[in-house]
Amino acid sequence: MSAPDLSVNLGGVRMRNPVMVASGTFGYGPEYADLVDLNRLGAFVVKGISLDPWRGNPPPRTVETASGLINAIGLQNPGADVFLRDHLPFLRQFDVPVIVNIWGRTVEEYAAVAERLSAAAGLAALELNVSCPNIKEGRTTFGTNLPMFRRVLAAVRLKTRLPLIPKLAPDLAQIKAFAQAAEEEGADALSLINSIPALAIDIETRRPVLANRTGGLSGPAIKPIALKLVWEAAQAVKIPVVGIGGIATAADALEFIIAGASAVAVGTANFTEPTTALTVADGIRDYLVRHNLGTVKELVGTILC
Ligand code: SIN
What we know:
Blueprint: E1 8-10, E2 13-15, E3 19-21, H1 30-33, E4 43-49, E5 62-65, E6 68-71, H2 80-91, E7 98-102, H3 107-118, E8 125-129, H4 139-143, H5 146-159, E9 164-167, H6 175-184, E10 190-192, E11 196-199, E12 201-202, E13 207-208, E14 214-218, H7 223-236, E15 241-244, H8 250-259, E16 263-266, H9 269-272, H10 276-290
Parallel strand pairs: 3-4, 3-16, 4-7, 7-8, 8-9, 10-15, 15-16
Antiparallel strand pairs: 1-2, 5-6, 6-14, 11-14, 12-13
Helix pairs in contact: 3-5, 5-6, 6-7, 7-8, 8-10
The protein binds succinic acid.
Succinic acid (SIN) is lined by residues 24, 48, 71-75, 129, 132-134, 194-195, 216.
């Protein structure tokens, strides 16, 4: 049997394999380029970019937990123009789709950054970050408020022809409603989940460890929650879904694919093992061979229950 076909068309983004690196965990490329062959990634998702530069939250901004990481970076970034001038040219040297995670504090800012980035050559898609738990205009304003979610999506849709991938919040009660609303407003794919709001306390000072007080929990601790939400969202829509949440092994990724994800993103695991996305893709290939499957697409959503 010939080698299995791992390629995926994610709402117009052609990926050589279904494993991408999640926004905020791989910088803008140079940070990892000496450690990882970027040409072997399914796609590269850039840290959240806004129209103007943004300082993010004061430190401390991260704390490890028993089985994950809480971060409150606050979407620090150099702004769209600096990204296009100083960072995109580096990434464009590689044969990998570049997806830019975008955010704003208002509907107008979202639309403006989408328009600015769409005018540049070399981007494969925009991931719409409506789910950051660490800025007040993030998750609660757009990611868990259905009318606002629709408004921001509709406004961005008008400004870009690039594939649009809203990144959903882990809204346990309303995930189907958000997934369907995204599809109705013209999204080409969905990604989920973003990190889960969380708290760590220093018992000596009795203060929150993070300067922002709360942050977003990611890593292995959230995988079963993410898996359930991906399963539910994938059943609710026809557009492809990217599964994110605690993926560190091929087995983790395969669970997401069997639950209905067409692609997956490796996030927190990149900090401990930068080559995780590559070993996950290799492991998916081995699984397809062992199970006599010619393509990864055949496995998507094959959960039996
Ligand atoms: C952050 O920068 O605070 C995290 C980004 C996100 O959760 O979307």
